[in-house]
From TrEMBL:
Organism: Enorma phocaeensis
Entries under SUPFAM superfamilies matching the protein: L9 N-domain-like, Ribosomal protein L9 C-domain
A GO cellular component entry from the record: ribosome
Pfam families: Ribosomal_L9_C, Ribosomal_L9_N
Gene that specifies this protein: rplI
Entry keyword set: Ribonucleoprotein, Ribosomal protein, RNA-binding, rRNA-binding
Protein name: Large ribosomal subunit protein bL9
Job of this protein: Binds to the 23S rRNA.
Domain Ribosomal protein L9: 13-40
InterPro entries, per database record: Ribosomal_bL9, Ribosomal_bL9/RNase_H1_N, Ribosomal_bL9_bac/chp, Ribosomal_bL9_C, Ribosomal_bL9_C_sf, Ribosomal_bL9_N, Ribosomal_bL9_N_sf
Keyword rRNA-binding assigned: yes
Domain of life of the native organism: Bacteria
Protein family: Belongs to the bacterial ribosomal protein bL9 family.
Length: 173
C-alpha cells in the first residue's frame, strides 16, 4: 500500500516521501497516529502544492542537525554509576541516562531514541556512542562510565610512559 508520510519515520523516510508499506501497518499505526495518508490522486496533488514548504522545513532540519553535530562531535560526557570489582557496573548505563547526561553537561537536549547504543553499557571505562541526529547525520560522543576525565588522562599518561620505557629498553638492548 502506497502512503504519503506526514513526518519523519525512522527506516521509512521523511515528510512528503511516498513509500510502500504493509496495509496493516498503515491502517493500524500510521493513519491513527496521523503519520501518513493514503497516496490517492487528491493527496498526491496536495503534496505537490506543499512541496515547496516541505523543502524549506527540510533545509532547516538539516541545518539544525549539522549545527548540533558540530556541537556534540567528539565531546565527553560522564555518567556517574556505582562500579563494583574489576570495573563491572551495578546495573547498566542506558540510552536515557546518556541523553540526560548530555542535556545536563553539554546543555543540548537529545531524544533518547536517537542514542544508538545497541545494548546497555555494563563495564566501566570510556565508550564511544553514536547519536543519530537526522536521517543520515550522525555524531559520536565519548561516554565516561564510572571514570572521571582526570583519571582517564592519568591512565593515558601512564600508558605513554610505559610505551616510552619499553622503547628505551629496546634501544638499550
Amino acid at each position: 500500500m502506497k502512503v504519503v508520510l506526514l513526518g519523519e519515520i525512522k527506516g521509512k523516510g521523511g515528510e512528503g516521501d511516498i513509500v510502500d508499506v504493509a496495509q496493516g501497518y498503515a491502517e493500524n499505526y500510521l493513519f491513527p497516529k496521523k503519520l501518513a495518508v493514503a497516496a490517492t490522486k487528491g493527496n498526491l496533488k496536495q503534496l505537490e502544492e506543499r512541496r515547496n514548504n516541505i523543502e524549506k522545513r527540510e533545509a532547516v532540519r538539516l541545518a539544525d542537525a549539522t549545527a548540533l553535530k558540530e556541537t556534540l562531535d567528539g565531546k565527553q560526557v560522564t555518567v556517574d554509576v556505582k562500579v563494583g570489582d574489576e570495573g563491572v557496573l551495578f546495573g547498566s548505563v542506558t540510552a536515557a541516562m546518556i541523553a540526560d547526561a548530555i542535556k545536563e553537561q553539554l546543555g543540548t537536549e537529545i531524544d533518547r531514541k536517537r542514542v544508538e547504543l545497541g545494548k546497555p553499557i555494563k563495564v566501566a571505562g570510556a565508550h564511544e556512542v553514536t547519536i543519530s541526529l537526522y536521517r543520515d547525520i550522525r555524531t559520536t560522543v565519548v561516554v565516561l562510565v564510572g571514570v572521571k576525565p582526570e583519571e582517564l588522562v592519568s591512565e593515558d599518561a601512564e600508558a605513554e610512559v610505559a610505551e616510552e620505557e619499553a622503547a628505551a629498553e629496546e634501544t638499550a638492548e
